[in-house]
Amino acid sequence: xxxxxxxxxxxxxxxxxxxxxxxxxxxxxxxxxxxxxxxxxxxxxxxxxxxxxxxxxxxxxxxxxxxxxxxxxxxxxxxxxxxxxxxxxxxxxxxxxxxxxxxxxxxxxxxxxxxxxxxxxxxxxxxxxxxxxxxxxxxxxxxxxxxxxxxxxxxxxxxxxxxxxxxxxxxxxxxxxxxxxxxxxxxxxxxxxxxxxxxxxxxxxxxxxxxxxxxxxxxxxxxxxxxxxxxxxxxxxxxxxxxxxxxxxxxxxxxxxxxxxxxxxxxxxxxxxxxxxxxxxxxxxxxxxxxxxxxxxxxxxxxxxxx
Amino acid sequence: xxxxxxxxxxxxxxxxxxxxxxxxxxxxxxxxxxxxxxxxxxxxxxxxxxxxxxxxxxxxxxxxxxxxxxxxxxxxxxxxxxxxxxxxxxxxxxxxxxxxxxxxxxxxxxxxxxxxxxxxxxxxxxxxxxxxxxxxxxxxxxxxxxxxxxxxxxxxxxxxxxxxxxxxxxxxxxxxxxxxxxxxxxxxxxxxxxxxxxxxxxxxxxxxxxxxxxxxxxxxxxxxxxxxxxxxxxxxxxxxxxxxxxxxxxxxxxxxxxxxxxxxxxxxxxxxxxxxxxxxxxxxxxxxxxxxxxxxxxxxxxxxxxx
Amino acid sequence: xxxxxxxxxxxxxxxxxxxxxxxxxxxxxxxxxxxxxxxxxxxxxxxxxxxxxxxxxxxxxxxxxxxxxxxxxxxxxxxxxxxxxxxxxxxxxxxxxxxxxxxxxxxxxxxxxxxxxxxxxxxxxxxxxxxxxxxxxxxxxxxxxxxxxxxxxxxxxxxxxxxxxxxxxxxxxxxxxxxxxxxxxxxxxxxxxxx
Amino acid sequence: xxxxxxxxxxxxxxxxxxxxxxxxxxxxxxxxxxxxxxxxxxxxxxxxxxxxxxxxxxxxxxxxxxxxxxxxxxxxxxxxxxxxxxxxxxxxxxxxxxxxxxxxxxxxxxxxxxxxxxxxxxxxxxxxxxxxxxxxxxxxxxxxxxxxxxxxxxxxxxxxxxxxxxxxxxxxxxxxxxxxxxxxxxxxxxxxxxx
Lengths: 307, 307, 195, 195
Prior knowledge:
The complex is a heterotetramer, with 2 copies of chain A and 2 copies of chain C.
Chain A: E1 3-6, H1 10-14, H2 16-26, E2 35-37, H3 47-53, H4 55-71, E3 75-78, H5 81-93, H6 97-108, E4 117-119, E5 127-129, E6 133-135, H7 136-144, H8 146-152, E7 161-165, H9 168-171, H10 187-194, E8 198-199, H11 215-218, H12 220-236, E9 241-244, H13 247-256, E10 267-269, H14 270-277, H15 295-306
Parallel strand pairs in A: 1-2, 1-3, 3-6, 7-8, 7-9, 9-10
Antiparallel strand pairs in A: 4-5
Helix pairs in contact in A: 2-14, 3-4, 4-5, 4-6, 7-10, 8-10
Chain C: H1 32-38, H2 52-56, H3 67-76, H4 79-82, H5 94-97, H6 105-118, H7 124-136, H8 144-152, H9 165-178, H10 181-184
Helix pairs in contact in C: 1-6, 7-9
């Protein structure tokens, strides 16, 4: 199966280095996960807006993206928890014939029809399953595997203390998508360890970055107050960096800290972290656009490599 | 002769990466120029303030620094045009017995007395010359030489187009310190070329960065208007970077451009430039603190190295 | 009510709703719970008020709005007192994850958002981001700084600058008009119109 | 003076000094040139008014204050009209470099600054930076961001944080008091005093 890469809105428009890192690590020379860009994808759409304001619009906009995957015969690979939840939930809702037919009426106007992914049968009747939505973490764990990843690591990120942040919509609602045990997740930790680094335990590891559900846009102080709690316990755990599979959580960690005195823990995306371990030149990881400089971390890595 | 390193105020307090680069390149393993830190040096003092407001105070504060060099039996190596002019002019003024005696009366209160550098004689009477003040450029040209520098280069900065900015007080007043022909300077160009890069010609190469004499602090718009002219002709010459031997000019280029739309030419200090060519890891050059990101330049260099 | 008595807070603003408070007729909407169910918050009716949701809710710890109390007020039909609360929800689904009765309080919040918007309480950010989607096919407006970096990284143009952008956006705009989303939040979703 | 006549500007503000203007007694200070000489601007007297200085002056191209005209006004004793001009000078010494008569106009500007300050016209930045030197031994106040980077680069403490800083600053402060610089610009240069 070749995956259709779903970059979302935030990565291309705010952290393009994550786009570079994702393509770098999935590349033939690296982890060799077959992917293809589908240029016509648009906003997933963002659940905090559309799922909050009008579920029908949300479902139709999501279905349009799903149909693009269906037409290209691809599963979707996402690098954002928001895209992941939105598309996954939509594909599931569209299993309900009523919802599907209502949505297809809307899609008809743009010449599209959602049926899902055709699955092999004895040929008499066609059968379909929902378009499959995968999070990058699943790919790294199930398609690649920590062992193979570890073999491919050329710059082990030894001595780094990593605070893993899973993010709400990777974990929950676990009814809709259960990648792993939502109360004891370990996949990102496993990936980080395969890259040679340590992960640290900290209070509130499973809680929200603070920004979700539109709260960051609506009441920034409230979002930042939650972030502060997490950052404090991450600081207490003496972490060098926060690693997350969600660019929206990353944005929140990266921007909220500017208004928090005395804290300065860089946050980087899992793609960038793995790319570093695979030997990517940090210059191409686009850390320039981060608010909280990643350079102290890189300097620590270089020192480690020299010493 | 071991030089007493005079870091000045701006480098340690705003661009510490230049301090790192300077120590890196003068180091035994690199260009092997014997230097020593004199920790008690204070502000040169800055000519735009003290030479403008009260020449007696200016001279006494400068003389205090000169006495430190005298006590340590050092010549002074500066990496800033402002420090260079201030100390050089002061050492010269102190040749006048009246000025010297007036200044020494002030210095007496702090237990110091300026005489200058003792020079070898037949022993009957002691003779002195002014404490010698050298600009880094002179060291690289006269003590090291472009040929030896070129030999030491491990990462030639090929394909880079460099706009050299000499800065007023490197060139003028040439009555006081004539490092080279103030109307046809070439030393920094020679150093840049020894590092493997090209230098570009541009209008207003010999003119002010815009900031000198207190104008930057007093009427920022006027300073920025001059900078704009220079940046425009540097842009026209398709330069990738401005290289200067003066951190104050660097500060002006680096900050004024933020308010100029559509221009974005990084400025780096000669020390950083040479350090890059000698193989320094850019992470330790402190470019994090630059306003105009140096990363595009570094990416160009890396691409060049890969291609 | 004496100064000594600790007031039992049951939701909304501490000064307006305490257990001693008399609920006025105009604050009471008997069809409220049914309306919430209509927009997907079916669990509102079966909540037992154990309070686990409040205990795990990140914002309940920071504000005076507690998940359990909001649900209770929905049950009581106190519409006017809760319509501003659902925007203070990260939709992190911890309430749902930890509910013994499988009540999905987050979906109740989502339903409350639907109702609030239909009553005309449309937060600015909903309009702003929706307009971006209509205009760029992306929730985020492009930034020149990012585009410069994209060029250096050889990443190709942003979606809004790709050849087929016009066609894709026509589709987005069609969908938004077909579901009357443009009318719902008072934006224009027609191609040529400038705002 | 008719609307048709192009006014010949001889310095200062265009509306206050043109050649047709009558110079008032109170604008005239016959001892001005001598005062300038006293503060090191000896060349003011011998300027031939060729105008090379204006031609190479970066700020003369940008403002209405032209080097040659400022020198002329100094010769004429028009003190009140030029005392604000010398701060618009980069002290780049191009005027001096390009003068056929070796007139150092930049040093005239420096002398004018000395005079202006003694008349109580003290620009804020002079006070601000001088206070930094008194306090830190450096013209620039320390920044925490820079200190963090210095730690990462293992560069050692900034001068103001070094062991012998107190002794060095006592010396600086002594010098500043000994030359009466503290009184001149109205700052305190005593160790224990806080501003």
